[in-house]
């Protein structure tokens, strides 16, 4: 299904494969951008490769581009599907629908449209929230789940308000991002300061400047882009209630839980063990939060080994 066959325009500009900067060699020969209309939402998705389907779900404040360094090698064994989730990149930015139940439903509908009934999922940061919801809400669809680098609202114990300075630095954006309007007002025109700080302080191996600039420019492209970037946090009340119900139905599928040595480490696996029975822990050495970009070789090796039974 191509954009031309559905009557939708071909994605263009920096948010698309054809316009994204500094992609790995040969990337555009394997991957293409397209729009998929799944009803109420037009989704931008990057696809390529051969083999069983693998859905890659990016985190905040990123886009599909976060997976670019591991996508070419994964495409040798899998059909890789890397969407911009609702509210991000070139996907639609409706006013509502940012709880993880709805976000997971978006991606289930996307996979329906692409013809994939059953698939594996890898999710980083808020992509872990969505991956968990996908596996819990659509248990017949997800074969294996890899997750990385975030607490899980409604499952993880809530940190104290007066936490250590280290924990405060890591998590203060949760409360800030949930605000209704003042966060938009404070960050508008200062996107490089706010988001640049997030990328710099949560990395052990600094992301290249072109990548940070790409993400910041995407978020600064218009008020709707900035506003939608906060929306998954504004919907946390609904997501927490959903997760409190989800964890009563423990997951039984295999799960790989990845943490960076200088970020959450073993805590990712400890979190998933609160909601799932078959959890494999992995701590990536000399890495902090941005695992697919800080440590793409280690991430690729981990995913390849974990997904080998699914590929077979």
Molecular structure report:
This protein has 312 residues and is α/β, with parallel strands linked by helices. It has a single domain, classed as 3-Layer(aba) Sandwich (Rossmann fold), CATH 3.40.50. It has helices spanning 3-6, 27-30, 71-74, 100-113, 126-137, 165-177, 182-187, 191-201, 209-219, 223-229, 231-234, 236-246, 267-273, 291-294, 296-311, and strands at residues 32-37, 42-48, 53-57, 79-83, 119-124, 142-148, 255-260, 279-284. An 8-stranded mixed sheet has the order 1-2-4-3-5-6-7-8, with helices on both faces. The chain is globular, with a radius of gyration of 18 Å. The relative contact order is 0.14. The model is unreliable at 1-5 (pLDDT under 50).
Largest sheet: 8 strands, mixed
The CATH topology corresponds to: Rossmann fold
Low-confidence stretches: 1-5
Considering the protein shown, what is the CATH homologous superfamily? Alpha/Beta hydrolase fold, catalytic domain
Query: What is the total domain count?
Result: 1
Mean pLDDT: 96
Number of strands: 8
Question: What are the salient characteristics of this protein?
Answer:
disordered N terminus; 8-stranded mixed sheet; 15 helices; alpha/beta; 312 residues; Rossmann fold
């Amino acid at each position: 299904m191509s954009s031309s066959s559905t009557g939708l325009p071909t994605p263009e500009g920096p948010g698309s494969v054809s316009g994204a900067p500094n992609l790995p060699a040969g990337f555009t020969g394997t991957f293409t951008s397209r729009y998929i209309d799944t009803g109420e939402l037009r989704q931008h998705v990057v696809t390529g490769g051969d083999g069983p389907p693998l859905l890659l779900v990016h985190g905040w404040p990123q886009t599909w581009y976060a997976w670019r360094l591991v996508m070419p090698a994964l495409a040798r064994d899998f059909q890789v599907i890397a969407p911009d989730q609702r509210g991000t990149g070139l996907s639609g930015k409706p006013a509502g629908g940012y709880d993880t139940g709805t976000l997971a439903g978006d991606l289930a509908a996307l996979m329906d449209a692409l013809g994939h009934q059953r698939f594996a999922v890898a999710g980083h940061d808020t992509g872990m929230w969505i991956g968990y919801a996908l596996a819990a809400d659509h248990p017949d669809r997800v074969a294996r789940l890899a997750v990385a680098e975030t607490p899980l609202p409604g499952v993880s114990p809530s940190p104290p308000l007066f936490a250590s300075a280290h924990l405060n630095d890591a998590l203060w954006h949760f409360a800030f991002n949930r605000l209704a309007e003042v966060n938009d007002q404070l960050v508008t025109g200062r996107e490089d300061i706010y988001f640049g700080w997030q990328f710099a302080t949560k990395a052990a191996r600094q992301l290249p400047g072109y990548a940070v600039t790409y993400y910041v420019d995407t978020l600064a492209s218009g008020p709707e882009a900035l506003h939608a970037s906060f929306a998954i946090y504004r919907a946390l009340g609904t997501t927490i209630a959903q997760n409190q119900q989800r964890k009563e139905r423990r997951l039984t599928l295999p799960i790989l839980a990845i943490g960076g040595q200088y970020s959450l480490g073993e805590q990712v696996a400890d979190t998933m063990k609160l909601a799932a029975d078959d959890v494999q822990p992995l701590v990536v050495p000399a890495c902090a939060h941005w695992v697919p970009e800080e440590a793409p070789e280690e991430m690729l090796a981990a995913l390849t080994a974990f997904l080998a039974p699914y590929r077979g």
